[in-house]
Amino acid sequence: MSVIEVESLVKRYDDKLVVDNVTFTVEEGEIFGILGPNGAGKTTTVESISGLRRADSGRISVLGLDPHRDGAELKQRLGVQLQESQLPDRIKVWEALDLYSSFYRSPASWPDLLDQLGLAEKRNTAFAKLSGGQKQRLSIALALVGNPEIAILDELTTGLDPQARRDTWVLIEQLRDRGVTIVLVTHFMEEAERLADRVALIDSGKLIALDTPAGLVGRANHEQRIRFRPSVPVDEKLISELPEVTDVTRAGDQIVVTGVGNVLHALISLLARNQIIAEQLRVDQVTLDDAFVALTGRNLDTADTSQSPEETT
Amino acid sequence: MTALTKLTTVEAKLYAREPLTIFWGLAFPALLLVVIGLFFPGARDPSPELGGTRLVDLYAPIVLALGLATLAFATLPAVLATYRERGVLRRLSTTPVHPWRLVIAQLLVQLAVAVVAAILAIGVGNLFLDVPIPGNVVGFVVVFVLAAASMLAVGLLIGAVAPTMASGQGLGLAVYFPMLFFAGVYFPREVMADGLRRVSDLTPSGAAVQALQDTWSGLAPTTSSLLVMAAFTVGASVLAAAVFRWE
Fold this sequence. Notes:
The complex is a heterodimer. Chain A is an alpha/beta fold. Chain A has helices spanning 42-49, 71-77, 93-101, 110-116, 132-144, 162-177, 189-195, 213-219, 236-240, 263-273, 288-296, 300-304; strands at residues 2-13, 16-27, 31-35, 57-62, 78-81, 150-154, 181-186, 198-203, 206-211, 224-230, 245-251, 254-259, 278-284. Chain A folds into two domains: 2-219, P-loop containing nucleotide triphosphate hydrolases (Rossmann fold); 224-283, MTH889-like domain (Alpha-Beta Plaits). Chain A contains twelve helices and 13 strands. In chain A, the strands form three sheets. Chain A has a six-stranded mixed beta sheet, with helices on both faces. In chain A, α8 packs across α11 (288-296). Chain A starts with a strand and ends in a 9-residue tail after the last helix. Chain B is mainly alpha-helical. Chain B has one domain. Chain B has ten helices and no strands. Chain B has helices at 3-16, 19-39, 55-85, 88-92, 100-129, 137-161, 165-183, 194-201, 204-216, 223-243. Chain B starts with a helix and ends with a helix. Chains A and B meet through α2 and α3 of A and α1 and α4 of B.
């Protein structure tokens, strides 16, 4: 069953087309990833779903409700964690949760949330005194305190150290296991690959692809890349004559071989016949990163630098 | 508890955690009155230049207006702009509670602080400096609430648009100091030149001091002073509601 339906969504800021005819549905109970570089239109899309922005055209239905006409009802059932949204410095952790839980019809027990998010020891700590990871966890707790059916989490691990990021991922999975539908906005490939059941790839306001992470990877170039350091000098020509090999380049003392099909087997057999050992052998796996490059023609990381991380559009 | 009660309670707690704002908002009016009464030469004697009134009696309504101006222009816009800058208002708009309720909670807290500060100043003035209790009590209360409303409305308007805490503070102070001047903090309205005093009559703080003074001495407030305050209350709050930016 679809809990979110977005149809032909268009949003402009001034003359700039930020969301360009985006259509997708989110199914009940899944983790739906929205992936793309900063400035791709991800945040604007989820802000329109949350009723914070009015689309220029298109139709949005969330839990069968219109985010604008039925905003009050929808906000009872939708938890939103916004990028870059803070609390007053001197508010204590428990006060914030107690306050936000008073906004909802049937709130979750906030002391339980504190336990689940590992914030129980911090309940009397002022917001300003929390670490980045703790602030982020409090922010997630506030998004969940209303017992939402859908949680929208925007860039929730940005600025966290790797350990805190992994902890947060575990938390998201637990949340999904409790039956909450999760829309996860991210520009981290790894995050989408690890968590999302399906991923919408968005670039320059357009929906480029929508599939499972494995499905997206499958659409990417099927070429494999093999790097190794030959134990003795090897004639590159010998390698490039293999039918499976499409390209051979040299990077320092390493050789990088690109090929299709059974290229790894062919290469290793060739080296063995010539009594050459492939040292530091590495086969690059195709990742969502490669899929992004294959589908958009650019690298997610370089696409990122076009706008500062603070940019919320 | 309803969301508004809870929001107001939390805003009050947050206010109480800022020692500097407490000092300037709550204690300073009373303190200034004491300093004038005790350390200005002849402040407690009837002065022929002031038409036979005592300087300290003249300053009692002025320090009340100063207290209101401090809350409305030095505190409120900065708080609202900070909430906007840090996304507090935006986060609230994702919940069933509209951020207007946070703004209303903040106004209620400022109003409560204003009332306590006024009681403190009147009490201290009466106990230590023989400043009389306001003669026309009902009129005085009405005027005080209207004066608070008119200044808070102007502060709300500044806080409605200032994008950052720094700009909220800067804009607020740019209004604050002229307001103090027109209230007669630097020299009382009694010694202002006629033209200047007429300008002062048209400002919320000048009108407030005039009306507080009248009701303090047992008279009714002048219609023009009430009209000026009412006009600022309605005009500024309607405008603030129209232009308020949540992010």
